[in-house]
Structure formats: structure tokens, C-alpha cells
Specification:
single chain; about 500 residues; 8-stranded antiparallel barrel; about 55% helix
């Protein structure tokens, strides 16, 4: 997978490309090429309307390409593969867009023939910094050409964003017009591809007069967007730019949505919400198994670096064991993502971004309804219940399971506070941030306890590694104890942030 970053410009048929000598970049013209691309989509153009595409382009070394949108305008993820049949997309790419197509058949929707004049911008060593492509595009209908347009694309390679801005100045001065980030396919298909996507995004901000329903809808849309955005990245099994994993982020989306459906229970039609939570639980369990295996491998490397005289050969053997565990969990997850059950869940989640079945109570102003809803998970956190101690009475000597259950209560209260804070309430926003910090600290405890238990279990089944595993487990227990010692002060800070909720307890 590569990240494609480009800027587009509309130009007239008579436009003349200016001299592109900018900064330290040297222009180098390349031979013109003609590219014929066939785009595949659903009957309702689900991919194009979502900013994605799946095409076969004659002349490319890897002719099949999927492009997926990102949160940054002008930046898309690009994945290319070979394929035996130009009329049948490879299954790997078909599944890569399954969260958007939800299994609907893919058929050709457009054929574009592009004559491309290219100029590379290179540094003194000849390395490519950017490519400027002057494209004349013909939209084909059989042998007819009902539409033609011309555009300039400037794609960043090894150069800086400032280089693209310098090129932009030259192009605009020569008469080009900034063309936004509209893909060629959308221009070719016209109005049908410009309709809103099936998956509606959350509102950027909510007004002070927001209803409780507005907050619920924003929370649902935000969680679903996270799940859908990370679906293809989970399938690719590539790390995210910040070093996190797609499995982790998709799991966060699932957990957050399940928590929101629980928090907002009085505002939701339970005939809709209850079965959806169950299906999200199924998916969350699969993601959780894969994520736990990821965490254990990361803990092994980090802990080994902190434990002196750890044998490299034994570490390699342990990593192999954990890698196999992760591969089994990941295979189970991928198998699930290729089922009708999963596609049906994606259909329900997508529909939820357009219409959330609400109860009459959701019509109340957010400022009136939300404090009471937030008070419920806060009350569970503070006072505990059903065998789980309250956050303030959690003893340093309590078993790991109690610490883990309190962390779950912290997480639920955090998600509720973050959803409620979307309406702009500052005390709720401060509480959400404090809960996030507390959750992170307790997450370190949970990870350390999980690792310590795993190392001791592996020591029993792999006695030749027992000495190393015992030392690793001891280090993890020490890490967990450090978190326990610091916990009372952390909780005290968070508890003070939540005092305003006592009025609703």
C-alpha cells in the first residue's frame, strides 16, 4: 500500500504547461503514454460516492488498483495487484472495498482513455521529487467519445509539500484553476457520482441548542466511520503511519459504539439497538483476540529490552510462539470479515449513519438529557457493583480482575463523557480528558498483568524457556505494581473533575 498525495488543476484545451524549474528541482520530460482504464463499481456507485475506486488500467505493471480516501483531502491510499482476467477484479481487491460495497456486485461503470504528458521534478542526484502529469481524458462509450476534459495532476514523490505549492504558483500564473480533489471517475460519471455517500460522516461540531438525538447520531456516525475506515487496513495487515495497528483502531470503533449504545439506551429503540450490540460483540471478540496477540508481541520486545542478559535465541523462540498465536487469531478475523454475517453487519452500520431508531426521549435538549445519562456510568465507576469495587475503594492488593473491571468502567464513563462533550459542555470535556488519561494508565496495568500471566503459562508448557519467562513475568508484575502505587493520586484528580455529576446521581 502506498499513500498518493496529489493536487489537481483544471485547464483549457489551449493551456501551455509553463517551465517547471522550481527551487532545487530539475524538470525532466518523460515519454507520453496513453492509458485506458476501466472502472468497476456497484449499480448505485457506492465506491465513487465514497471517494473510492477500483480500476483496471492497460499499460500499468500492476493493472488492478484500488484507491481509498483518507481524512486528508488530496491524499488517498493506493493498492495495486496483478490479475489474470481484465474483466474480473481480483478477489483480494473486491474484499478490500467490501465495507463500502457490502457485497453488491461490481460491474464496469466507465472507461477512460487518458493521454498523459509527464514531467518529473528531480533533485541533483536524479531522484524523483514530484510528477506533473498533463492529462487529456476521453470518456468512452463504445467507440464514441461523448466527453473530453483536460487536467493537470501534481503528485508528490520524495519532495516536500512546499515543492507542490511552488509548482502550484507557476500553474496558476499560467492560467490553470485549482480543481479541488475531484477524481477523474467522478468527473466522468457526472452528477450520479456526486450524490452523498451511503456512509454519512458525523457533524464537525454541534450547536449549543443540540437535541439529545443530535449527540446520539454524531456518536454513532463517528464510531461507524472508524470501523469502516480501518476495515481495508485490517485486511492489508499493515501498520498505521503513527505506529498503531488497524486491528486496534477498528476494535476501538466497535467498543466505542457498543458503549454508546449502552449509555444512550433510554434514547434508542431497543428492538434495533439490542441485536446490533450483540453483533458488535461478535466482531469485537474477534478483533480482541487479534489485538491481545499484538500487545503480547510488543510487550515481549519492550520487556526483554528492560531485562538484562536476556538470551536472544530464547527471545526469538518466544516471538515465534506469539507470532503463531497472532496468525491464528488474525486468520479467524479475516475469515469472519469475508462472511455474509459481516457484510450484513456493515449494511446495518451504514444504515445507522442515515437513520438511528430513536425513542421519544431523544427529542429533549442535549443539555437537559445528557447529564443524567452520563451520571449512570459515572456512578458505576465511583461506587462499583456486582462484585466490582468502586474506583475510589480499589485496593492496591486487589486481584488483577478487579483492576481490569474498574478499567472497563473507566472506559465506559470516558466514552459517555466524550459523546456528551460533543454538545460543547466544558466540565464534561475536562472529565473526558481526565478519564482518558486514567484509562491509559490502567491499560498499562492490564497489559502488564496479561503479559505476566501469559509468560508464566508459557513457562509451564515450555520448561526450557522457563527461566527467561519467569524473569519477564517478574518485570511485568513490577510494572503493574508501579501503576497500582500511582493510581490513588490519578483517581483523585479524575474524581474532582466529576463532582458536577453528583447533582444527577
Amino acid at each position: 500500500m502506498t499513500l498518493e498525495e496529489e493536487r489537481k488543476y483544471d485547464v483549457s484545451p489551449s493551456f501551455t504547461l509553463p517551465e517547471l524549474a522550481v527551487a532545487d528541482a530539475r524538470p525532466a520530460a518523460r515519454p507520453a503514454v496513453t492509458l485506458t482504464a476501466t472502472y468497476f463499481d456497484t449499480a448505485g456507485l457506492r465506491l465513487a460516492r465514497a471517494g473510492a475506486s477500483l480500476r483496471h488500467r492497460v499499460g500499468d505493471p500492476l493493472p488492478w488498483t484500488v484507491k481509498l480516501p483518507t481524512a486528508v483531502p488530496g491524499v488517498r491510499q493506493e493498492i495495486s495487484l496483478a490479475g489474470d482476467d481484465p474483466a474480473v477484479p481480483p478477489a483480494a481487491l473486491t474484499w478490500l472495498v467490501a465495507a463500502l460495497t457490502r457485497g453488491s456486485p461490481l460491474t464496469p461503470v466507465a472507461v477512460l482513455r487518458t493521454r498523459r504528458q509527464r514531467v518529473d521534478l528531480c533533485d541533483a542526484a536524479g531522484s524523483r521529487l514530484a510528477e506533473v502529469a498533463d492529462d487529456t481524458v476521453e470518456v468512452l462509450s463504445g467507440t464514441a467519445v461523448p466527453r473530453t476534459f483536460r487536467e493537470i495532476e501534481v503528485e508528490r514523490a520524495g519532495g516536500s509539500p512546499e515543492l507542490l505549492s511552488a509548482v502550484e504558483e507557476l500553474l496558476l500564473a499560467a492560467g490553470a484553476r485549482a480543481g479541488g480533489f475531484t477524481p477523474k471517475l467522478v468527473r466522468a460519471l457526472g452528477a450520479a457520482a456526486a450524490y452523498p455517500p451511503d456512509l454519512l460522516p458525523p457533524a464537525a461540531t454541534l450547536p449549543a441548542t443540540a437535541r439529545a438525538a443530535d449527540v446520539v447520531i454524531a456518536a454513532v456516525r463517528g464510531a461507524v466511520a472508524r470501523i469502516v475506515a480501518h476495515d481495508p487496513l485490517v485486511r492489508l495487515d499493515e501498520p498505521l503511519p503513527d505506529g498503531d495497528t488497524a486491528v486496534h483502531q477498528m476494535r476501538v470503533g466497535v467498543r466505542r459504539l457498543r458503549s454508546d449504545l449502552r449509555t444512550f439506551k433510554p434514547l434508542l429503540d431497543q428492538r434495533w439497538a439490542r441485536p446490533l450490540r450483540a453483533e458488535l460483540g461478535w466482531l469485537g471478540d474477534l478483533l480482541g483476540a487479534a489485538r491481545d496477540a499484538e500487545v503480547l508481541r510488543d510487550r515481549l520486545r519492550a520487556t526483554a529490552a528492560a531485562v538484562p542478559a536476556t538470551d536472544e535465541g530464547e527471545l526469538a523462540a518466544l516471538d515465534t510462539i506469539l507470532a503463531a498465536r497472532r496468525e491464528r487469531a488474525y486468520t479467524d478475523l479475516l475469515d469472519a470479515l469475508r462472511t455474509r454475517r459481516y457484510l450484513a453487519l456493515m449494511e446495518r452500520l451504514t444504515a445507522a449513519t442515515r437513520r438511528v431508531p430513536l425513542s421519544p426521549a431523544a427529542t429533549a435538549p442535549a443539555a437537559q438529557a445528557l447529564p443524567g445519562l452520563l451520571a449512570r456510568p459515572w456512578r458505576r465507576l465511583v461506587h462499583g457493583g456486582k462484585g466490582v469495587p468502586g474506583a475510589g475503594s480499589l485496593k492496591r492488593s486487589a486481584p488483577d480482575v478487579d483492576w481490569h473491571q474498574v478499567r472497563i468502567h473507566v472506559k465506559r464513563a470516558r466514552y459517555a463523557a466524550e459523546a456528551a462533550a460533543a454538545a460543547g459542555d466544558q466540565p464534561t470535556r475536562r472529565l473526558a480528558k481526565s478519564l482518558a488519561r486514567l484509562q491509559d494508565a490502567l491499560g498499562e496495568h492490564t497489559d502488564a498483568a496479561l503479559a505476566a500471566g501469559t509468560w508464566l503459562t508459557l513457562a509451564e508448557s515450555h520448561p526450557h524457556l522457563a527461566a527467561t519467562l519467569t524473569r519477564l513475568a517478574a518485570h511485568e508484575r513490577a510494572q503493574a505494581n508501579t501503576t497500582r502505587a500511582a493510581y490513588p493520586a490519578r483517581w483523585h484528580k479524575t474524581a474532582r473533575k466529576g463532582t458536577f455529576l453528583s447533582l444527577h446521581a
